[in-house]
Structures are given as C-alpha cells and as structure tokens.
Amino acid sequence: MCGLNQDPYANSNEVGRVRRLYVSSRVRRFGIGKMLMDSVIAEARKCYTMLVLKTDNPVADVFYHSIGFTVITDPKNETHYLRLNG
C-alpha cells in the first residue's frame, strides 16, 4: 500500500507527499515497491511538480535513491524529493 496527497507542509499546491509505502515482508524483493512507486509517480505527474517523503529507515533510503529520489540535506518535514517536471 502507499498513499499520495498534497504536502501539507509545503507552501505550494504543486508538491505531493508520498505516505506510508509498505510491502509485506513475505513479498519484498519482488519489485512490488517499485511498481507501487511507478504508479504513484505517474499519478503525481498529473497534479504535482515535485514529490517529497520522510523516512528514517536506511533500507528505505537506499530504495528511494534507486528510483531517483534525492536526499534533502537539511530535513525538517521531509528527507527525500523527486522533481516531476521533465
């Protein structure tokens, strides 16, 4: 499961927030997380120019890097972002 909504912390309605990406431990490493995120990113492109998320999980950090997210060096409300324009 995974959620997508307008980021309540942003000063812009063009920023979407990924929330609670979760794949059951029994079916991890089969590409389900990437398929979910591909779907979320495709949907987000319809409304947003950027996606953000917050995680403190090192495994999630590696995953988000692998699909193109960049680390925010001074995180407050988010730790990663992905530009959607272009």
Describe this structure in words.
With 86 residues, the chain is an alpha+beta fold. The chain has two helices and five strands. The protein has a five-stranded mixed β-sheet with strand order 1-2-3-5-4, with helices on one face. The longest helix is centred in the middle third of the chain and has 13 residues, at 32-44. The chain is globular and about 40 Å long. It starts with a strand and ends with a strand. The model has no long low-confidence stretch (mean pLDDT 94).
Offer a quick outline of the entry:
By secondary structure, this protein is an alpha+beta fold. Helices cover 26% and strands 22% of the residues.
- Average of the residue pLDDT scores: 94
Radius of gyration from the CA trace?
12 Å
Q: Alpha-carbon distance between the termini?
A: 27 Å
> Which ranges are low-confidence, i.e. pLDDT below 50, for 5 or more consecutive residues?
none
Range of strand content: 15-25%
Structural class: alpha+beta
Strand arrangement in the largest pleated sheet: 1-2-3-5-4
Largest sheet: 5 strands, mixed
Number of strands: 5
SS element count, helices: 2
Q: Oligomeric state of the chains?
A: single chain
- How helical, in percent, are the residues? 25-40%
Based on Cα principal axes, name the global outline.
globular
Output the helix-strand order: EEHEHEE
